[in-house]
Amino acid sequence: MFLGLPCPGTPAFDALCDFCDEHRVAVLASLPWVAAEIAGHDGFDAMLRFVRALGGRRVYVPRDRSGFADRLGVELSATTHARLLAHTSEAGTVEVPSAWGVFIALRRIAIRAAMAAGGDLRSVAQSFGVSERHLRCR
């Protein structure tokens, strides 16, 4: 599952959303604020779609919510749109975290969850492609 952000509509995407729901508090705490705002109000599915579509860019947030959806192709709730508007730069933009950065944050949570569930160093290291030393240093 942790091989990069999967495409929406795939079983891997659904499994990642389920993982995020299962570890909601840890995930929200580790995400950059834009991603956390979207996930907190619109769900992890919407956040992952948003980051996949616009990650790594500075985007203009129109005052009109429908304009936002038309311009960027992403539908957000009124609450999330208002929160993004409240935190835009003077130019009316927000920086969307990269999909890779969000993926790395989720992967770290998954590693911690695997260790907390009693996984041995060798199997967790092999599953996530890290060294046992990396896990011991955590």
Structure description:
The protein has 138 residues and is mainly α. The chain is 64% helix and 4% strand. The protein contains 9 helices and 2 strands. The chain has helices spanning 11-22, 24-30, 33-42, 44-54, 65-72, 78-86, 99-116, 121-128, 132-136; strands at 58-60, 93-95. The protein has a two-stranded antiparallel sheet with strand order 1-2. α3 crosses α4 (44-54) and α3 (33-42) runs antiparallel to α6 (78-86). The longest helix is centred in the last third of the chain and has 18 residues, at 99-116. The radius of gyration is 16 Å and the shape is elongated. The mean pLDDT is 90.
Question: Can I get a quick summary?
Answer:
The chain is mainly α.
N- and C-termini, Cα separation: 22 Å
Question: Could you give the count of β-strands?
Answer: 2
Low-pLDDT windows of residues: none
What is the gyration radius calculated from CA atoms? Answer: 16 Å
**Count the helices. How many?**
9
Summarize the main sheet.
Answer: 2 strands, antiparallel
Give the DSSP E fraction (strand runs of 2 or more residues). Answer: under 5%
